[in-house]
Amino acid sequence: MLSFLIMAMQSPGFLVQLLKPKENNRYMTEAGNMLGSTAEDSEPVASDGMIVRYQPPVEEAPKPVLKPVIDSKIPPEFDASSGGMKDFWMNIDFVKALVDDSHIPFAPPDLHDDGAWEKLLLANPFLENGEDGKKDKECPTDSGMEVEVTGSGTHLDKSHNFELLLQNMGNSHYLEIEPIVNGSQLETSENLELLTEQMGHLTSESDHRDEIPKRSALLDFKSTTNFLEFCFLSRDIIQTWNESKDCCSWEGITCDKVKGHVIGLDLSRNCLKANLTTNSSLFRLEKLQSLNLAYNHFSNLSFGFDRWKGLTYLNLSSSRYMDSSLLFDEIFLLSKLVSLDLSYNFGLHLDNIKFQMLVHNLTELRSLILDFVNMSLVVPSSLPNLTSSLEHLSLSFCQLQGNFPSQVFQLTKLVSLDLSLNDGLLLDNIKFQMLVHNLTELRFLNLDFVNMSLVVPSSLLNLTSCLEHLSLKGCSLQGNFPSQFFQLMKLVSLDLSLNYVLLLDNLKFQMPVHNLTELRFLILDDVNMSLVMPSSLLNSTSSLEHLSLSFCDLQGNFPNQVFQLPFLQLLDLSYNSHLGGNLPESNQSSTLESLILANTNFSGELPHSIGNLKLLKELNLGSCQFYGSIPRSLANLTKITQLDFDSNLLQGKIPDVFEKMHKLTYLSFFHNSFDGEIPTSMLNLTHLTHLKLSSNKLLGPVPSWLFSLPSLSHLDLQNNCLTGPIDHVKMPNLILQEVYLSNNMISGSIPSSFFDLVNLTIVDLSSNNLTGTITLDMLSRLVDLEDLDLSNNSLLSLSNNGTAVNYSFPNLRSLKFSSCNIHKFPSFLRKAEKLQELDISKNKISGQIHKWEIEGMSLSSLNLSYNFLTGIDSFGFENLETIDLRSNLLQGSLPSLSTTWDSMRNLFISGNNLTSEIPSSYCNFTFLRVLVLANNSLGGKIPKCLGNLSDLNILDLRMNKFHGGIPNLFDKNNSLITLHLNGNQLEGILPRSLVNCSKLEILDVGNNNLNDTFPHWLGVLPSLQVVILRSNRFHGAINNSMPTFYFPQLRIIDIAQNDFMGLLPSNYFKILKGMRDVAPADKVKLGYVGDYIQCLINASCLASIYFYKDSVKVTMKGSERELVRILKIFTNIDFSSNQFHGPIPDELGELNSLLLLNLSHNSLNGQIPSSLGKLAELESLDLSSNKLEGRIPEQLTKLTFLSVLNLSHNELVGHIPEGNQFSTFSNDSYIGNSGLCGFPLTKKCEEPRPPSSQFDGEDDSIAVFEWKFALAGYGCGLVLGLSLGYISFTIGKPWCIVKKVEKYQQKLVARCKQVWLISNSREI
């Protein structure tokens, strides 16, 4: 042993030349790689070159690593304890290695300069400290994972370690050391001499380097490598390799310090593109132990991995390997692998046999990551065969299916387990119990989207108390969450989101926020927290950094104190529509980086202190109730990247505060009331990609600098009051892709420089006042153009300029030139092979469209409506779904459409002069949903084969000359929603098969010759809202004993001009639920009849849809009026021109949502019931031409929306009531009643007017009159007003137009007041 010490002092380099021990030694491995198992508490190894160490928090609290990353090429720290050193010296293999020249050099563990070597060489190996060798069975006290990156290999990197070693060894002669090997002394000097001689040989070779072969291999690889285009990950390592320097100094290269072999190669994230064939120069690096090729593109024509026998770390993540068989056959040979990462190679498939081979051969694995590798053919029962040494297992999105085997939980050393995104994997309650019972070392568990619907939430109580990171997103957990769960006090992150039926009540939520003192990430999105009081959040741990509670159904007021949590970085409360609150005023700065309150009920003015959130990167206040102006302190948010204020009540000018927001990428002020011009400080937003200022009241020109913002890709200014013009674009942005300027008042021509924005894909300039001519030369510059909409610019024209053959428009998908003064079909589009939607409606195209003009297109939607076409050749489009030929001059037979039968969805040919029958070929459109042939002169019988169209939603054949009966063509599986047969010559009875139309909303068979009784059997249809039977020969009495559930949605019933007789059905009026008790808030929500039809159509058409507008005719003021688009709030009862007799039922007064009531031209008698005064919404009342008697009830004066009253030709007597709307009616309302007197009749009443109990005094009456006439002003023409208003606000027409409508309403109110004052003064 003395010789050993002498050699150490003379040649300290021998310590890095020790020979390789046998494989059973747990500290020494090939070429200094310390990847074997270490002490009992070995470190987890990460997949990207890192050791994950658990350490107590330092000053700056480390953030949790939600998924531990593993690097198996890094050796664990050497155990310098007495027990560890004893193992080092006492191993017989070590001594054998010293005398065996066949072993390759051994590199000792890398120790810091902390005296460890001194202990190693000088301490007595027999002295043991029992406390040092003890393993801590408790969980580590750390709260997170700290990632420490170390180099590959075990060489000593700092020379002062060697100096310290020399110094220590120089002092060693003062000590008496008796080295013992396996209990026996080295008794003879011969052994020492032999040892001395052997180490001398080793020392003579210490400086040998094999430089040329390895340099050549690396440079050859560099020369055969290319780089991927448009790659943003590249570290450009390979470009830095300098041939004049030692390759061991190159970045990404790690060498063995003894012989200089390349043992580590890290080329990850370099965007390399190369072939790894068997001849690849990389395979000449035969001593390679660690290889990282992640995030590159390597084709795998063939491999040579078997040459890397010593490989322990392999990372091929995101390398686009596709040939599974070759790759896995090679990997099976790498028996020393400790870490394997093949994740995110989407073409890889691992079947059950290959997986069995993997787990059989790779017995040293401690880390296995196969995320996104297709393992759908792997039986889950194969998983238990994985090596028991496994510490990190990640099989995310591997398409595993079936029951999870319980034996897998015998992998008791697992520190991290990720089985997320395997939604076909079932984990029941028993298996989960075993998981939490056996995996006691588990610190990271991710089971996102694993089916845990059979797991009782109380099973979560048994999870190991060591757990730090738990994610159970979308696991179908259900029931009440156990409060005891929150005793996992080491939790750093918890994600229970997307468990929609998991219930968390107030008491249980107070426990987590109180107990989980280490919690920094809490994500409960979509968990039912409707029973949790927002004030419970006041108990949140001060360490909280990330709090996400979106879609939780939180209710009440949110406490402002939560905004002041000292470490809070993200707060997401979005989509809790019943959660209110406001942004607090605060002079303190904040750690907040993301504040998301979208779609909540937060309100109030934006505080000036919002400028104190100087770290803020994302601010989303969209769809809230904030009002007022934007504070100028917003300019302080210089780190902001996303700013969203859309759909609030904000107003005023957009402040000029964007000068220093250089990082802003997304800005939205959509749907507010901002006015003024676009602020010029937006010029500084050089990183802005999305700018949305639509649906405001912005004025002025369209600044040309908007089109020069260097990063802008999406510009939305539609629905404003911009007047333009669009100025010359001086520096066109070559990134801009989408421009929306529709529904403004932009005038002038489109400058030619606009078409220098050559990367535009979507341009919408519709509904403006643009002028001038657009030439094909301009359009052809937009080579990437996909959607172009220039509709509704009546002074804008398109020039063909005779060179159409030269333009192809290769990417054009949608072109809309509606109302653009076009005179001929744009045949230049024949080369637009991708064109799917063409709208040239409402132009001046005349004559015939020939087949050659439209050949070559692959249209799915064609709109030629509202032109002057007289004919169209037979044409065929393989994928045509919608064709609109409405309102042209087509004559003769219906067009022959030689298209694929199963492609056609919507067919509009109404408003022409067609005279033929419906061809049977139309019945071959198997999936037809809309067939509109109205307003022609089509004849014959309705084809029975139309009943074969089971997907048909709309059948509109009105105003034609069809005759015969309505065929029984409605099967039980039909989808009919609207049936219009009005204005034909149809006979017979209503087909009873209509009862099968469970989705039917509108039935219009008026103005025919149908002869039947009242179809009470239609009452079972749950969605029926409109029934028009007028002007037929329906007859008989209406059954007065219909069930109470009949006609639940009926809103319009018109049976006028038939032969019905008997009493009015009083019980019938009781069941009409659709005409009573419609809440004011619901009136806005109801929309139009058939709204969801448009959604159905939209599903089968392109983005621009040809809306079918349902319409019916109603009688108002004695004449018919057509209602285009039927508002669901419109209600009408028309029983006029029949033979009803008897009194008017009091039950009519219960229909308090009724707008129109017409019982005229019958033989009704008795008095007008006073209950009609309860019809508060009534606009029109026609009781004329009956035999009514008595006085007009004073209660009718309460009908403040009444604008039409006709009581003429009855036997009424007495005073005409005065006040409110009655002061606006003329003589015509009362003519033919000889017993009536008073205003407006010239006949004066002799008897005094009965006292009115309606008003208490003159002053009050005037006030009430003013209020009620304000309402009456809105009531005048309610049908028209609501229709226009609803359309304006739903389609988002310019706010400036809406403002004009509001002014018009105010004038209307004033006019109604004036009428009343004049009328009242006359009476006085």
UniProtKB/TrEMBL annotation:
<keyword id="KW-0732">Signal</keyword>
<protein>
    <recommendedName>
        <fullName>Leucine-rich repeat-containing N-terminal plant-type domain-containing protein</fullName>
    </recommendedName>
</protein>
<dbReference type="Pfam" id="PF13855">
    <property type="entry name" value="LRR_8"/>
</dbReference>
<dbReference type="GO" id="GO:0005886">
    <property type="term" value="C:plasma membrane"/>
</dbReference>
<dbReference type="InterPro" id="IPR013210">
    <property type="entry name" value="LRR_N_plant-typ"/>
</dbReference>
<keyword id="KW-0325">Glycoprotein</keyword>
<dbReference type="InterPro" id="IPR032675">
    <property type="entry name" value="LRR_dom_sf"/>
</dbReference>
<keyword id="KW-0675">Receptor</keyword>
<feature type="domain" description="Leucine-rich repeat-containing N-terminal plant-type">
    <location>
        <begin position="215"/>
        <end position="256"/>
    </location>
</feature>
<keyword id="KW-0472">Membrane</keyword>
<keyword id="KW-0812">Transmembrane</keyword>
<keyword id="KW-1133">Transmembrane helix</keyword>
<keyword id="KW-0677">Repeat</keyword>
<dbReference type="InterPro" id="IPR046956">
    <property type="entry name" value="RLP23-like"/>
</dbReference>
<comment type="similarity">
    <text>Belongs to the RLP family.</text>
</comment>
<dbReference type="Pfam" id="PF00560">
    <property type="entry name" value="LRR_1"/>
</dbReference>
<keyword id="KW-1003">Cell membrane</keyword>
<dbReference type="InterPro" id="IPR001611">
    <property type="entry name" value="Leu-rich_rpt"/>
</dbReference>
<dbReference type="InterPro" id="IPR003591">
    <property type="entry name" value="Leu-rich_rpt_typical-subtyp"/>
</dbReference>
<dbReference type="Pfam" id="PF08263">
    <property type="entry name" value="LRRNT_2"/>
</dbReference>
<keyword id="KW-0433">Leucine-rich repeat</keyword>
